[in-house]
């Protein structure tokens, strides 16, 4: 009898331990299927990515004890992650995406809650057959308010990993605002950005040689901002702006930036001459955001009828225009043509960016003004330069601000900023572009632990651009040069 009781007790203990182990195991054991997609952050469900991008790590929304993810490629290969969040090995992820270029990856997500496993409906991510062919991104990180110049800077990010490097931070130049950076066709051999503040200047680096231009030229009435390189590298288009900002007192409208005056110009670094022409610098219009066409023979820009500022700033609406440019002579060739009339729609078009294959022009459309990054209604639009037709990019737009953008070198990917997350901070999204201009669901720039990164980073991302290689700027030399106040004078031709 004693042996029988002992045996029963031993059997019960073994069963209890087995049950406890089964309920607490860190790998799924007979999970309960749930016919819904997992609620993950960022939302990568149904996106399209390039081969070689950093792993699409994600967190599962809601309390859970363990996250278990298996990724299988349609052309073969398998990847497994298990822990607090989906954290994939970089080398294994790259091997999987390379093997499945032009095919789908299927994600199986299980979570353990209260000791029980749940398995969500599988979702897929497509690996595009179009490469990205860019080393990374450049962007500015800045606090989401513009009352003062807090800590901010220009940064670059390796798209194949999670490595971020500063190009230049304003801690090296106290009180300065670093902004409006641009490289030439994603190649940073030619690089420029503007510095506002007590040591204002426009920095230009060409072939490793750095030069700081005097921030203002009295002949043009302002500084040189919003740059765009001519494909030859021999010219840079800028606008010269007298900018102010105001702060709204109504909910949903926070900050407004507007120009009292603005004109477009082209700078020739070799001669330090500014091409300033009445075709693009008029008294009765505000001209802004100049960009060259890929062949360098057209200059696109934005133009609005001048209004009284600030009383009529909500009536300022910009059209997209173009004018010819002769790079051999360094002159504009008129007339000026309107290529998209936003005013007829009671809208304002800004931030034009031509695709490098010359087919499309990407721009931002908002209700008014020239600074749509705080406009909730701001959306991405695409103009077909062959047909002249324009459309809203419903496939990438959100119910919050979608604005500043740029193209990859092969014109198959875009990067843009969006406030779709919380309405306060802009984050970076990428999307694939088909030859006909149709775009895929955008995906947020991957981070190793997305929640920890984005919740812990109290900065907005803006003015993003792709870069073929790392930006090679000597930050210490640049800071010394900026603080020295030694500047090169520019002259109007």
List keywords for this structure.
493 residues, seven-stranded mixed beta sheet, five-stranded mixed beta sheet, 4 helices, globular
Strands, count: 36
The description of the largest β-sheet is:
7 strands, mixed
Q: Calculate the terminal CA-CA distance, rounded to whole Å.
A: 111 Å
Question: Count of helical segments?
Answer: 4
What is the arithmetic mean of pLDDT? Answer: 90
Report helical residue fraction. 10-25%
Outline type: globular
**Helix/strand/pairing category:** mainly beta
Radius of gyration equals: 26 Å
Strand content range: 35-45%
Low-confidence stretches: 1-24
Descriptive report:
- The protein has 493 residues and is mostly beta strands.
- Helices cover 10% and strands 44% of the residues.
- The chain is built from four helices and 36 strands.
- The protein has helices spanning 2-24, 90-99, 450-456, 475-484, and strands spanning 32-33, 40-41, 48-49, 59-60, 66-73, 78-83, 104-113, 116-119, 123-127, 136-142, 153-158, 164-169, 177-184, 187-196, 201-206, 209-214, 216-217, 222-223, 225-229, 236-247, 255-268, 273-275, 285-292, 298-305, 319-326, 331-340, 348-354, 360-366, 379-384, 390-392, 402-407, 413-418, 427-432, 443-444, 460-467, 491-492.
- Strands 1, 3, 5, 6, 7, 8 and 9 form a seven-stranded mixed β-sheet that branches. It has a five-stranded mixed β-sheet with strand order 19-20-21-22-36, with no helix packed on it.
- The longest helix has 23 residues, at 2-24.
- The termini are far apart.
């Amino acid at each position: 009898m004693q042996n029988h009781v002992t045996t029963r007790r031993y059997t019960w203990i073994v069963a209890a331990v087995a049950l406890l182990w089964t309920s607490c195991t860190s790998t799924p054991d007979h999970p309960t299927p749930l016919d819904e997609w997992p609620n993950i952050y960022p939302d990568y469900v149904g996106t399209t990515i390039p081969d070689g991008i950093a792993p699409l790590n994600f967190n599962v929304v809601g309390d859970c004890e363990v996250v278990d993810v298996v990724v299988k490629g349609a052309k073969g290969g398998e990847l497994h992650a298990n822990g607090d969040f989906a954290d994939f090995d970089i080398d294994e992820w790259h091997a999987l995406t390379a093997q499945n270029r032009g095919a789908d990856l299927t994600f199986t997500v299980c979570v353990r809650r209260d000791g029980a496993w749940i398995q969500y409906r599988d979702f897929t991510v497509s690996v595009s057959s179009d490469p990205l062919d860019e080393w990374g991104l450049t962007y500015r990180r800045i606090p989401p308010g513009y009352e003062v110049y807090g800590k901010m800077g220009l940064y670059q990010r390796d798209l194949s990993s999670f490595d971020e490097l500063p190009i230049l931070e304003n801690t090296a130049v106290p009180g300065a605002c670093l902004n409006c950076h641009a490289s030439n066709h994603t190649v940073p051999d030619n690089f420029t950005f503007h510095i506002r503040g007590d040591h204002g200047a426009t920095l230009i680096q060409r072939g490793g040689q750095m030069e700081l231009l005097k921030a203002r030229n009295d002949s043009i009435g302002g500084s040189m901002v919003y740059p765009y390189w001519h494909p030859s590298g021999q010219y840079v288009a800028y606008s010269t702006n007298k900018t102010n900002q105001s702060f709204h007192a109504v909910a949903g409208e926070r900050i407004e930036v507007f120009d009292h005056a603005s004109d477009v110009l082209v700078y020739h670094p070799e001669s330090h001459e500014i091409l300033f022409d009445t075709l693009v610098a008029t008294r009765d219009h505000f001209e802004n955001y100049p960009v060259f066409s890929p062949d360098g023979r057209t200059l696109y820009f934005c133009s609005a009828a001048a209004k009284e500022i600030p009383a009529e700033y909500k009536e300022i609406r910009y059209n997209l225009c173009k004018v010819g440019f002769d790079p051999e002579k360094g002159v504009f060739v008129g007339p000026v043509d309107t290529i998209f009339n936003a005013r007829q729609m009671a809208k304002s078009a800004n931030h034009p960016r031509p695709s490098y294959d010359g087919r499309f022009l990407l721009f931002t459309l908002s209700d008014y003004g020239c600074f749509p990054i705080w406009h909730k209604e701001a959306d991405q639009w695409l103009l077909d330069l062959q047909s002249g037709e324009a459309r809203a990019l419903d496939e990438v737009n959100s119910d919050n601000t979608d604005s500043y953008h740029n193209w990859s070198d092969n014109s198959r990917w875009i990067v843009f900023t969006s406030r779709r997350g919380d309405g306060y901070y802009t984050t970076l999204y990428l999307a694939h572009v088909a030859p006909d201009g149709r775009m895929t669901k955008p995906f947020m720039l991957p981070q190793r632990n997305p929640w920890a990164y984005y919740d812990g980073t109290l900065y907005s991302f803006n003015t993003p651009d792709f870069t073929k290689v790392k930006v090679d700027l000597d930050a210490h030399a640049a800071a010394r040069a900026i603080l020295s106040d030694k500047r090169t004078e520019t002259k109007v031709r």
